[in-house]
Amino acid sequence: MTLMKTLKAGSVWLLACLAFIASCNDHKPKPDNLPHVNENPQAANSIDSSAAPAVPQPGDHRFIVEINKMKFVPDQLTVHKGDTVVWINNDLTNHCVTDTGKAWTSSTIVPGRFWTKVFTKNADYFCAIHVVMKGKIQVE
């Protein structure tokens, strides 16, 4: 094989590998009706909203809890009374969010879907499908 054919074959192989790697990313589309997540690491759990007031007030915030790899991430949040928590199921299986006292439940959240709840008091919760998954919401 000549040097040119070897280089050409190597280039084709490299491009095929890069295409394969790009197609294997772990990106999952978010639901269309979910607000844009703030990319600021200082406010990783909040959501940007163009309609938000200049000075945020208690109850004006949304917090994201990602369900991934059989865990709630983060598994503990501190929110203000009236704030909203959004659980997004980015796992490969169904999950739910259920109050430990069973006062409320999300029902089943299939992969790629989400569920929201406004909080007015503290709550401990778990996934009734996978009882080892637990979380806490602290309301200030």
Overview of the molecule:
- With 140 residues, the chain is an alpha/beta fold.
- The chain has a domain at 41-48 and 57-139: Cupredoxins -  blue copper proteins (Immunoglobulin-like, Sandwich), CATH 2.60.40.
- The chain is 15% helix and 26% strand.
- It is built from one helix and eight strands.
- It has one helix at 3-23; strands at 62-68, 71-73, 76-79, 84-89, 98-99, 114-118, 123-126, 134-139.
- The strands form two sheets. Strands 2-1-4-6 form a four-stranded mixed beta sheet, with no helix packed on it.
- A hairpin with a 2-residue loop joins strand 1 (62-68) and strand 2.
- It is globular.
Provide key terms for this protein.
8 strands, alpha/beta, 140 residues, single chain
- How large is the count of helical segments? 1
H/E topology pattern: HEEEEEEEE
In CATH terms, what is the architecture of the domain at 41-48 and 57-139? Sandwich
Kindly report the average pLDDT value: 76
